[in-house]
Write a structure and sequence with these properties.
Layout (H helix, E strand, L loop, with lengths): L3 E5 L8 H8 L4 E5 L15 E4 L13 H13 L4 E4 L1 H9 L4 E15 L4 H7 L4 E12 L6 E6 L2 E8 L2 E4 L7 H10 L1 H6 L8 H5 L2 H20 L4
Amino acid sequence: MKPVAIFRHLPIEGPGYFATFLDNNHIPWQLIKIDAGENVPRDIQKFSGLVFMGGPMSVNDDLPWIDSSLALIRQAVDIDMPVLGHCLGGQLMAKALGGVVSVNPFKEMGWGEVSIPENPVASSWFGDLTHFQTFHWHGETFSLPPGATNILSSSYCENQAFAMDMHLGMQCHVEMTARMVRDWCSVAAEELAALEGPAVQSISEIEKDLPRRIEDLNAIAERLYLKWITYLK
């Protein structure tokens, strides 16, 4: 099988549990370090799927790799190559496919519940689940691109995930590991202490009972990733 291309936009926002999942399922992958100056490839024929991770920037920023990333996503969708996006990655997907990315009314930073709407597309990804706890770390949100279906919402962000055929874009972070959570909290300690809002948690709240929370989140990610890889060619 051709490798899955994983696009990283910040060193501490790597593939996390997704890389572990691919290794466990003997699926090759290639990390493309946008944060280290690596170029977005023009040709996707050597890959089986595209995966975009998170980052602190906005898809509306004037950065040299954004337009080429958007073009790559459209190219993949045109040839039915599965695309997967986490947070910034989901926003890139939404914008590439005709959605709009804008400031969310609330910053979400920490653990929070998301609910799964009653529609056939959501059921195909989540089965009989109705809600779960996931990790959030964002201040912007996306609108649904034409043809996409909302499959996750939270009290503070209506569009937490969308699916379009084989393509899955998420606002929340299901890829987290305990190490990633601690690293993000360490880097953002001053920001977390200064922020106020109903969806922003303190570091102690975020790190409370972390091993169990991560184990539960890994199980959710496993479910989503297992479906996504069925579309790899």
